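Bench log, entry 3. Co-assembly request; chain sequences pasted below exactly as received.
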Amino acid sequence: MTQGIANVSVGEQFEGFLLIKSAEKGVASNGKPFLTIIFRDRSGEIDAKLWEITKDDEEVFTPESVVHVQGDIRQFRGKAQLNVRQIRLATAADGIHPEDFMEKAPIPVEEMQEYMTKIIFDMRNPNIQRIIRYFIKKYEHELFTYPAATKNHHEYAGGLAHHVVSMLKLGKQLTELYPDLNPDLLYSGIILHDIGKVKELSSPMSPSYTLEGKLLGHITIMVDEVQQAANELGIEGEEVMLLQHMILSHHGKAEWGSPKPPQIREAEVLHLIDLIDAKMNMMNRALDKVKPGEFTERIYPLENRAFYKPVMD
Amino acid sequence: MTQGIANVSVGEQFEGFLLIKSAEKGVASNGKPFLTIIFRDRSGEIDAKLWEITKDDEEVFTPESVVHVQGDIRQFRGKAQLNVRQIRLATAADGIHPEDFMEKAPIPVEEMQEYMTKIIFDMRNPNIQRIIRYFIKKYEHELFTYPAATKNHHEYAGGLAHHVVSMLKLGKQLTELYPDLNPDLLYSGIILHDIGKVKELSSPMSPSYTLEGKLLGHITIMVDEVQQAANELGIEGEEVMLLQHMILSHHGKAEWGSPKPPQIREAEVLHLIDLIDAKMNMMNRALDKVKPGEFTERIYPLENRAFYKPVMD
Amino acid sequence: MTQGIANVSVGEQFEGFLLIKSAEKGVASNGKPFLTIIFRDRSGEIDAKLWEITKDDEEVFTPESVVHVQGDIRQFRGKAQLNVRQIRLATAADGIHPEDFMEKAPIPVEEMQEYMTKIIFDMRNPNIQRIIRYFIKKYEHELFTYPAATKNHHEYAGGLAHHVVSMLKLGKQLTELYPDLNPDLLYSGIILHDIGKVKELSSPMSPSYTLEGKLLGHITIMVDEVQQAANELGIEGEEVMLLQHMILSHHGKAEWGSPKPPQIREAEVLHLIDLIDAKMNMMNRALDKVKPGEFTERIYPLENRAFYKPVMD
Amino acid sequence: MTQGIANVSVGEQFEGFLLIKSAEKGVASNGKPFLTIIFRDRSGEIDAKLWEITKDDEEVFTPESVVHVQGDIRQFRGKAQLNVRQIRLATAADGIHPEDFMEKAPIPVEEMQEYMTKIIFDMRNPNIQRIIRYFIKKYEHELFTYPAATKNHHEYAGGLAHHVVSMLKLGKQLTELYPDLNPDLLYSGIILHDIGKVKELSSPMSPSYTLEGKLLGHITIMVDEVQQAANELGIEGEEVMLLQHMILSHHGKAEWGSPKPPQIREAEVLHLIDLIDAKMNMMNRALDKVKPGEFTERIYPLENRAFYKPVMD
Amino acid sequence: MTQGIANVSVGEQFEGFLLIKSAEKGVASNGKPFLTIIFRDRSGEIDAKLWEITKDDEEVFTPESVVHVQGDIRQFRGKAQLNVRQIRLATAADGIHPEDFMEKAPIPVEEMQEYMTKIIFDMRNPNIQRIIRYFIKKYEHELFTYPAATKNHHEYAGGLAHHVVSMLKLGKQLTELYPDLNPDLLYSGIILHDIGKVKELSSPMSPSYTLEGKLLGHITIMVDEVQQAANELGIEGEEVMLLQHMILSHHGKAEWGSPKPPQIREAEVLHLIDLIDAKMNMMNRALDKVKPGEFTERIYPLENRAFYKPVMD
Amino acid sequence: MTQGIANVSVGEQFEGFLLIKSAEKGVASNGKPFLTIIFRDRSGEIDAKLWEITKDDEEVFTPESVVHVQGDIRQFRGKAQLNVRQIRLATAADGIHPEDFMEKAPIPVEEMQEYMTKIIFDMRNPNIQRIIRYFIKKYEHELFTYPAATKNHHEYAGGLAHHVVSMLKLGKQLTELYPDLNPDLLYSGIILHDIGKVKELSSPMSPSYTLEGKLLGHITIMVDEVQQAANELGIEGEEVMLLQHMILSHHGKAEWGSPKPPQIREAEVLHLIDLIDAKMNMMNRALDKVKPGEFTERIYPLENRAFYKPVMD
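Structure output for the full assembly:
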């Protein structure tokens, strides 16, 4: 692949493969239809215009398809825009995979799987262990392809698993520093807390909210599923309710979407670990883009703060 | 029964049957144990002291038992207090029922049952109708004995059913005034919205919050149960999710305990009807206690307002 | 009239009568003046440009005048825009009434008048009845032509009366379900609560806020007028103050513009009915525009929620 | 008069005249009725008990009457309490005036009257001047006897006038520093802004809220009265509305009871001056009671802050 | 100087000297670079485009330099825009000073200096006097050239000193009306409260926030400096801490940036005076731009209110 | 020492040594003076009364002195109360140390010192290392004796150091999980963030807020000291400002007392670590007091939540 679409400059030519993230039809002032497309590759995104399109074009150049594009980079209202001169669908012959155009978790899937397997293997409470294994099996594929969110943090392929693994590592340290914490409860809460997202979001690649996601939300979806899994596995006892409570309360307070606040120690810690890992992910990725002595862009979910990158070492 | 314990005056004698609402042991300054009891009958409550108790007394005079009491009414820190001189457990021979000491819904149970049966019979959507019938059957007894809350509104035997029936009547009027409303959705939402309270609260007579009630809450409990009922009945389709959404959102906003706000018309109306019926119940009961030209006590859940009872007609 | 200006498509021609809602002068990059106009008819609105205008045009094409227009529909920044080729003022010969270009209440004025007359006739309290008759007479014309608001809900000709009549119907049902409510107080509160809008807003057709509306507001204006009416009619007694209180408190709390919260039962109910009818109006009109299975646009005054239209029946 | 009831110590005897601020009947544990009285004189207040009272006592020892009392000072729950041994109503022969038992404004009434007369005399706008004169005449007596509030600030006889005069002085300085301010508007706003309190409060000596005060409030009452005064005096024009706006908005924002925020410069300044004078009055009176190097009690309406009195000079 | 760049009309020619406030490079759709400039003079600002620039132009036409410009006024997206035809840097021969292009305090610097000198001379507390003299000397130049803020109020050359002097005058009046106030504390608080801005802001002419300003803020910077000054001058005692407290608390509450609220009388008054002077400055400048009978633009820091300019006199 | 004063039961006798935490004089209804004392030992606290005291008693039995007490345990208003029969000051012969009556950090001081020494030794940035060493030396004694707060968390002897050491351990784990974090910045922020408490609080044993603590607060005090230390040590550069920023921002947001929010990655992490360690300390200590299956008392600074201790293992 080339240098990446996010790195081309105004005035340059571009030729290469890109993924269509979205495509919307408009009608120009001359009455001719055109497409407003957002292309992406692993480096980022660019806006584009495809002028005077045919009915065919409209049906072919749709979201999640990969295309080969030639064009030049213009400036439009202060932003780079790709003016498409030639475009065609990628073919099998091109040997191109849509996944290659998505940002990916920085850790290989296998490594993440292994880490989680180990954690689950070490669990001492058999009820919790069985429930976790049930879900790891059920969502085996989704867990390692879905993002953890549509934007803000871990919003890349495998982001959900990456978020879970980082939190497990953090959780492990905390159970060592604060030995009163029950590791099984904490780890199982971490693994399950966001899995509901695989039903809340429509797809791993260009996710939008499903109807179920909008009307019920990932928290309620997952609390439900834990109950059904327990029924199916014939498990009864406090563990089931405690797991449901941890999922239910992990946003920390009612205003943030948890109808019950954490009321066991491990639930409070789950909430705090979630916060830390999400914040670190956002800060790190924003700071990676700036030089020492500069401020990042404002980060909306971090109370719209900009962060300074020190010069000192 | 007599005039009612809430209506005796300081200086008077009292003799009659009372229900023990709560009983707590203390040790007096002379080192002797005593019980601080709250007695109740249908008219209300009174504080009492039972001095120099035996081990036996402690075990016998416990919450939810009915006793025959003789004593006089004193004043203690500005409140009437019953000074017990004689006390014994009621016996079968007394022909006394604990329920007779609870405030009751002002409508007979049969009338409420009949009204609900009629509403359910008229439902056109078979999926909704089957789910509602499932729950009416499952919680047949609890629905007509539990209060709708531990305090504030409809906090009396059968209060839950009374609240539901009043809301159904209101809902019926609204579907006539606003014919776009789907009656089946609205009625089923009304019937199910608070049933989770029969698991959130410990008992109909002197309810406290159960562990499940504290960690999950009646909303989550019921959303879960609807899913399980649908599974059991083999029902699929939008209706199940819409019913869950209505239960989930009926508190109106996140701060009030609904992780998702109402997103269908009937859910919004359910929330509003719930509000009106709860507020009317609180205002009416407070205003019943004052004379024209007076203000009620401040009502905490109504933003701590006092209400004026007009003199004009 | 034609299909309605809100229903034309980009690329089509338009010819017909339209009302000028607003017109603002600009100067083009070639130095020539032009007008940016918003036209409307009963179906909705469209933006338009009238290029290279004369002094005369500027004086003639002003808000609230009706014109005959020919032009074609273009797209500008994603929105349809009418490019005017010919335009002239409507003449008497055209037989056109400005009112025909406004959205109207869905119930005929006569029916609304009749309903209100009946309600007032049935009042038992003569003082209240006289005050209400005084205002019905005084604002006879405005009540049935003004909108209830400049936007959000009932923002159409006769919207004020439509809002009042819907609320009266709701109020009637509530007095039946909760017989402690005083119907005279409730109905009179409903009728008067928003009449101050006829002085707060500048005109029924393209209303803006008057100076009095901005500095005092419709609530204060109307509380004042009730006092003056009572003085004029020689009425004294609690009723006057209670009516003033209901108007004053109908927004429910200080943050929403009511310096005193409702402190009588009927004032609280007035506030709740107002809420319900406004919300139903907003939801119904938004849901009318979408198909089953879709969400409406976000509705700002309903906490920016979008509403889902179920597919099930 | 003696040293003042606020200055006696536990263990001392007291003999002298006191005003009854409030008196409430109770029944003792021996079944005998008694009165819980709050006595006051200019130095402050004391709680008292009058045991084993007769029907007569109950009718005679009522709020706002002056009595001659003998008794000793005890301590009850950490506070001084006057244990009454002898008590009788003051008679004409005692030459006692109830006003002598109230705290008073630190400036003589005549001086305040004179200052206000001068300010009004200098007004240039005849409409404003006539309206102000109308109210000064109408409430001549109340203005100089009522407090400005029931507690917190200027809560003494003549406190209302004292507050107005302080604010007028402050206003005068501000019109000199910021010459764009219109003195007539500002001064008239200052004089009228709180006069509604004479109808909101029941009496100058032991004020409680009237029904009108609770349901409408001093702001609405006064906005109404300005309209009626203008009608009576045949005055029309912007001045009337501006005066109403200043009264309406003087609490600054909706949450604080002003349905409209200040929208003219003089209204904003009126709000700020009101704030300063109320705060200075509260701080000064609290700091007067402590020594250098100490903190005052927490002052609730000043965000519950305690203020430090510096040692340095 | 000419009529001022803020007063030219679309279609007119402009020739004269202007200050470059900001200049940003862009690339046109023809691939050629251009500058987007904001010019300013004492009357206000105008946007401008300088097309097809050279490398030289880019380096020469930078912020804070003065240029001689010829061009015509166009309209672009509803705003006037200066289309530059000729431009050159001002030379020594032109006799132009950048300061002449900034708005200035309405009082001459000498007069402000004199007023402050007098106030300081009259101080009775030698410790306070020495600290104030230390800072007046240290920031002699900055105090009379910096604005008091980057926008909103006193955002002009010398605005900081102007704000201080107005507040001192107000403070003087208050110490006369409320003689309990300690003038030395109040005046010294006024003089120091905002001086930290000379380190928080980058320059008097086109100020932006410095790194220190962003990470520490003017309040913390100044509290630090007072401590260091006291150390340097060998001053100990309560005065130092009280001065620090006044600076620290002058924003009034935590949400507004003061980690401690005012806890001495003079600190509270400092906060209130600051509020009044800032608000008067904003209101006066907005009202100066409109005619009687009109409303000002909405003023964001005044809760986004628009103010009405009365017609009456 | 005995079983501990917190563990005696009503009706028992007590004899042993106790520390006087506070002592306040009152006058009984018989006119005799008495002392209300709070005693404490390492197990907790108890209220007590010492009747009919002499002048001597008053002067001798003062806070922070240790006494030998004999008495019996009564119940007063639902709480245990020690009725003192004999009391005398502890003498040298008793071999008693006031520190023995305080709760202590669960880790020995030497271990904490060693851990911190190691962390500081490993720092790579010499400026930061020198500043930290300066403060460790300056507050060597206070750091290991002061509590971290007067109540809520780590409110015991050495609590400040214990809090710092726990946070350092947490910080160490985080720098490993998130290698972008600068360890020197993070560790130095942790060590300094609360040291200002040694000046904010009056003493390690029965701390109250100092005047400086009230008017400036520990954050401002410490930001000042860092500046002075840097001056003294001749250190300049970004490090000083970054350390000040970390201290300043460690409460996270303005409402919580930080005038600037965290704007570097390490400051955000410092805030989060502080939160976690404080919360863990509060939860652990509350849960230690209850049995599995029970809820703790409500913990006010944890949003008044009660926490459940699971039964499962």
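The mean pLDDT of chain A is 91. The beta strands of chain A are 13-27, 33-41, 44-50, 66-76, 79-89.
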